[in-house]
Amino acid sequence: MQIRTVIFQSASISLSFSPEDGMKVLVYGRVSSYPKRGDYQVVVNRMERYGRGELYEAYEKLKEKLKAEGFFDETAKKPIPDIVNRIGIVTSQDGAARYFKSNR
């Protein structure tokens, strides 16, 4: 059985992905009848990819972007020194790490 769906531009502009044939999605909307064909359809208000969360999708998109820019290129990486001369600590103005010191 197949259920027809329709998504209008007002709802489609908020999508974080481009739907493709065969893609599994989760849709939210309302059921309406279409008398000309004598069937029902779902008017989609929101759509999400099914199986992977939005955060994971954003992570994958960022990873691909950084890969294209060469951030994961092994030849561009600097070697890690055997002896570390300095360590930097990034913290807030009131963070406890601000007062941490080690004399080793």
From TrEMBL:
GO-annotated biological processes: DNA catabolic process
Q: Which residues form the OB-fold nucleic acid binding domain?
A: 1-48
Enumerate the Pfam families for this protein: tRNA_anti_2
Q: Which InterPro entries match?
A: Exonuc_VII_L, OB-fold_nuc-bd_dom
A GO cellular component annotation here is: exodeoxyribonuclease VII complex
This entry's Gene Ontology molecular function terms read: exodeoxyribonuclease VII activity; nucleic acid binding
Q: What is this protein called?
A: OB-fold nucleic acid binding domain-containing protein
Lineage, broadest ranks: Bacteria, Pseudomonadati, Elusimicrobiota, Endomicrobiia, Endomicrobiales
